[in-house]
Design a protein that fits this description.
Strand 4 and strand 5 form a beta hairpin. By secondary structure, this protein is α/β, with parallel strands linked by helices. It has two domains: 199 residues, no CATH class; 130 residues, no CATH class. The longest helix has 21 residues. Helix 15 crosses helix 16. Strands 2-8-4-5-3 form a five-stranded mixed sheet. The protein has 16 helices and nine strands. The protein is elongated, with a radius of gyration of 24 Å.
């Protein structure tokens, strides 16, 4: 059994070191337009079905239990107040991205359709006259009252600063009320859905990358975020400033609608780099202390990629030797062990990696 196969028999998320995310927040001031509107439940269901209000394909799926969903429907039938819903209106498409309220909206559409996770949706776990009822078996009066019940919706869009969507990220991060807090990359995959996001998820399944990171995909999209980080530092290392999440947000936003043709070069350099690393360093790559260290990865992998892009020649034996020596370098260790998102430590580890692999 190989080293990585041993790790894959365990929970892989415990074998990733990345302490820089979410330590700092944005200091930008935003200009946001918003308005509130009360939508009847029937209108909400129709707009979900017509994809005017939508859940991007990589947002977490329906996770509520049938009992919890039933209690939400019962609350509406009883006339009790329920939490509002937040939507972001996309300027380009006019469609509305669900920021908070996904589970409530999916519960409504499921109940109206009569199906819960491929099974009949009859209300359960409630102590009222509606126990066991489906939408079809409710009385006409109850059907009408549910369909006409209003739920408050807040719609917003970012006016300033133009050119980024950091306010959307901040709102999503702070308002999302799911049972499990969404990870940074899960939020990005929702907000910046599009061709580039699909591309990252496709690369995440690439065979050599999986042999380096681990065979099991990370269920919080940490592996997808690491690929994003590879491209962001490869192209914009000189523009880096903390916080890390904002740096990655801005990069992903600019690439969001890249065409397949534009993504060909990115795919080639990523796969070429991963193949070279797998051949030279092997399955211990980026694991100086057993766990996969994201800061070691971003500096070493992108430095090697940059050398390949510039046509530089890399000897396999010398690369492995240089890598092992680099891990012993005191300054490099400082750059990847603590405060890894600070500008000083990012510059420190990239400078040392560049010297080790002959880029400087």
């Amino acid at each position: 059994m190989t080293y990585l196969q041993e790790l894959n028999d365990q929970a892989m998320e415990h074998f990733i070191i990345d302490e820089d995310e979410d330590i700092t927040t944005t200091s930008e001031l935003f200009s946001i337009s918003s308005y509130g509107i009360d939508y009847p439940v029937e209108t909400l269901v129709n707009r979900i079905n017509n994809e005017q209000f939508y859940v991007p394909s990589f947002q977490r799926g329906f996770v509520w239990s049938k009992n919890r969903s039933s209690r939400f429907i019962e609350s509406l039938l009883l006339g009790l107040p329920v939490p509002g819903i937040f939507l972001y209106k996309e300027t380009e498409t006019g469609k509305h991205l669900i920021i908070d309220g996904q589970q409530r909206l999916l519960t409504l559409t499921s109940f109206f359709q009569g199906e819960f996770n491929t099974k009949k949706f009859n209300l359960s776990g409630i102590d009222s006259k509606w126990e066991g009822k489906t939408f079809e078996t409710l009385t006409k009066e109850d059907q009408m009252r549910l369909a006409d019940t209003a739920i408050h919706v807040t719609v917003f869009k970012q006016d300033l600063p133009r050119g980024n969507m950091n306010s959307v990220y901040e709102v999503f991060e702070r308002l999302n009320t799911g049972g499990v807090k969404l990870s940074a990359q899960e939020i990005r995959s929702c907000i910046f859905h599009g061709n580039f996001n699909d591309f990252l998820h496709k690369l995440n399944k690439q065979k050599t990358w999986r042999s380096i990171f681990g065979l099991r995909e990370n269920n919080r999209l940490k592996d997808v975020e690491i690929i994003l980080r590879f491209f962001a530092f490869l192209e914009r290392k000189d523009q880096y400033s903390p916080p890390m999440k904002q740096f990655l947000n801005n990069f992903m936003a600019t690439k969001r609608n890249y065409t397949d043709k534009e993504l060909i070069d990115l795919e080639e350099i990523f796969i070429t780099t991963m193949n070279f690393i797998a051949t030279t360093i092997g399955d211990h790559a980026f694991r100086p202390e057993k766990a996969f260290n994201v800061a070691v990865f971003d500096s070493v992998a992108t430095t090697i990629a940059k050398k390949i892009k510039e046509g530089g020649k890399l000897c396999e034996y010398e690369t492995k030797t240089s890598y092992m020596e680099l891990l012993k370098n005191h300054e490099f260790r400082e750059g990847y062990l603590t405060n890894t998102a600070s500008t000083e430590n990012v510059n420190k580890r990239f400078l040392n990696a560049g010297q080790a692999f002959g880029l400087i």
